[in-house]
Amino acid sequence: MRAQGVNGGWQYSSRTETAPPAVRQRLLLAESDNGPDAIRTDYVFTADDEPVMLSTSWEPFALTKGTPIVLPEDGPYAGRGVVERMMAIGIRITHSAEAVSARMVLTTEATRLQMAPGSIVLTIERTYWADEQPVETADIVIPVDRYQVIYGTAIDEIPQT
Fold first, then answer.
1. Which CATH number do you get for residue 61?
2. What positions does the domain UbiC transcription regulator-associated occupy (predicted)?
């Protein structure tokens, strides 16, 4: 954002929760009857203090409990991102997967993004993996009328057939 002359930032709140069924499936979590099993972090990303993107991130509590990275935005690795934070506890992220779609904004999202109800948003369901183990999943919401998402793929990372 700095390269575009924009001041980027974010607000967040983290807490332990019992992950809902869709998140449990993405994180390969077994059914829980022992209380909270995930760290949920809700983000509002901003550009020049205006909301530009929402993200709800989930990490398995058993994976980070008792480590310096248990809360994504607190401690010595605050704000470093999933890849660097997981590496700090010996977990190497090997890949991510994303499902991209679009839909009408939900009422709560419209309020947080300062959008009109009925507007269209881009949704990204992203999961980071350490080999066969999912270590973080997030639901990302971006207003399509204000922003575009640009992707790239490193060719040397694509398996040859």
1. 3.40.1410.10
2. 3-148
